[in-house]
């Protein structure tokens, strides 16, 4: 069957043919319908630190998965052939420790399965499993709730979801995004202010800032800007660069917090899909063909991707 392989840092993904999986005990095989592309997939190509998250190479990347169960293994009683499912990547660290979604069929543990609600497409469900989970998980880490002032750095595949769900939770949302072409969409999603840098909101006393970009200077600026007098929290999600130089003066004297947020929970994925099903959340998703995954990765590298990239694996 068709698949893509990650074979090592600083090497391109390879399009390969591999044997089809079978469902082991407590597992199912799903026919993959949609598989997301993520900046983390760029990261594994460019930074050796990602190898610590991998059991062995080669591995099939892809940690955003949606499809239909086509085989159930021994002991599986709560799922059946034909069920439409999304897959949380956190259960087995799909695409890193085990083969991910960039293949026609994937073996998945039942602990990772999430039922797809009516009204959610496979592309949306795939995006919900990481882009949604990670975005909403960061809101949960930040304690975002009604009445808060929340800064969002980056309005791409993650930030567009985080900003919208923060608004749907009742927060006042401030978006920092260098690409002015998406500013109108940020405002339409509920943002009260939009600017190129989070530093432009220094006078707004933001309760929480979530950095979905993570390019070093964004982390520093977030710590400078988040409100003083205690309680101001910066949630670091983006991994555009894996190092940052910060000013500890505002961190200490302002009694601010800097916390990391990786992934999220099934509840975060379910919240994302709930809003998708209702029509309250309609993130921009650009669908590409399975054979175009390498081209999609290049779009992420070049910064030309529109919204969240999702590969259509099968009809």
From TrEMBL:
Coiled coil (UniProt feature): none
Keyword Cell division tagged: no
Cofactor(s) listed: Zn(2+)
Top-level taxonomy: Bacteria, Bacillati, Actinomycetota, Actinomycetes, Micrococcales
Catalysed reaction, written as an equation: a secondary alcohol + NAD(+) = a ketone + NADH + H(+); a primary alcohol + NAD(+) = an aldehyde + NADH + H(+)
Annotated TM spans: none
Keyword set, alphabetical order: Metal-binding, Oxidoreductase, Zinc
InterPro entries: ADH-like_C, ADH-like_N, ADH_Zn_CS, ER, GroES-like_sf, NAD(P)-bd_dom_sf
Residue ranges occupied by any Enoyl reductase (ER) domain in the UniProt entry: 8-311
Enzyme class: oxidoreductase
Pfam family, one: ADH_zinc_N
Zinc recorded as keyword: yes
Family according to the record: Belongs to the zinc-containing alcohol dehydrogenase family.
Superkingdom of source: Bacteria
Annotated protein name in UniProt: alcohol dehydrogenase
UniProt EC number: 1.1.1.1
